[in-house]
Design brief:
The protein is of the alpha+beta class. It has 9 helices and 11 strands. It has one domain. The relative contact order is 0.22.
């Protein structure tokens, strides 16, 4: 799941953990992240993204969710309308990347938002210098310092040339527990009142690569759900694990536990307004 480059032109690695990340139960304390709560969050993500299929799917266990995820990416009928976003990363500064990821998601047209949500906000991460690529490729959002650039969700053929050209963005070292830092989401709030939320990110046994995948899914879906908007302030807080925090969570990113493959773990969490 996703920082520096790998070997020669390898196929782009995508955020394929489709079935696992969703709104948490309202005001769920992090201290109460039981197996049942994590399972419900993961299942709710599937129901939110593909409501027309949810009643026909078995979402009753971690193993069942894994089978659902594999089915989404192995079924021709599902892949036919799947879209993916692409992010090219030249330099990684996590707080700036969080800010620009929110800006990218906010910039999407309604149709692109809907298609991306139905594809579980699938994203491919590539290593490259956006400044050197802008003459050849049309990006939909570019960080103000050229540290990263995004192509909007589209069928895979739309970005096939870019994905063949660049290597997968990889960083296998463990995410460092950085000091808390505030990030303001770009844009004018308009008639909406900006809010302040904490964004918790788990670090224990989590690589930088995987952290990017987890945080990207959470931020994108929080924007699509209206939990994050222009002018909002996010405080990034890095913790070994999300349990025992005492915070009230509005959304979770849940995936397979790195310590226990048959269980689930919360990798990122967005709190209610603080």
């Amino acid at each position: 799941m996703t920082a520096t480059s790998s070997a020669t032109r390898s196929p782009a690695r995508s955020a394929r953990t489709a079935a696992l990340a969703a709104p948490a139960p309202p005001a769920a304390p992090a201290a109460s992240l039981s197996s049942a709560v994590l399972l419900k969050s993961a299942a709710d993500r599937v129901r939110s993204a593909r409501p027309e299929l949810a009643d026909r799917l078995d979402l009753s266990s971690t193993q069942a969710l894994r089978a659902v995820r594999d089915g989404f990416h192995g079924s021709r009928g599902v892949e036919a309308d799947e879209v993916l976003a692409v992010v090219v990363i030249g330099r990684l500064d996590l707080p700036r990347w969080v800010k620009e990821t929110c800006a990218f998601a906010l910039s999407l047209a309604p149709a692109a938002r809907e298609a991306w949500r139905r594809s579980f906000t699938r994203t491919v991460y590539l290593a490259g210098n956006p400044a050197n690529l802008r003459g050849r490729f049309a990006f939909d959002h570019v960080a103000c310092d050229d540290s990263a650039a995004w192509a909007a969700p589209a069928p895979g053929s739309a970005t096939a040339t870019l994905r063949r050209l660049l290597k997968t963005f990889e960083a296998s070292h463990e995410l460092t527990a950085l000091p808390a830092v505030d990030v303001t989401v770009p844009g004018r709030p308009g008639g909406r009142r900006p809010v302040h939320r904490d964004l918790y990110v788990a670090t224990a046994k989590v690589t930088v690569t995987d952290a990017l995948v987890h945080v990207n899914h959470l931020l994108a879906e929080a924007v699509l759900d209206g939990l994050i908007g222009p002018g909002d302030r996010l405080t990034l807080r890095f913790v070994p694990r999300l349990t025992g925090l005492g915070a009230q969570l509005a959304m979770l990113r849940v995936d397979t536990d790195v310590h226990r493959p048959d269980e689930l773990q919360a990798y990122a969490g967005l709190t209610t307004e603080v």
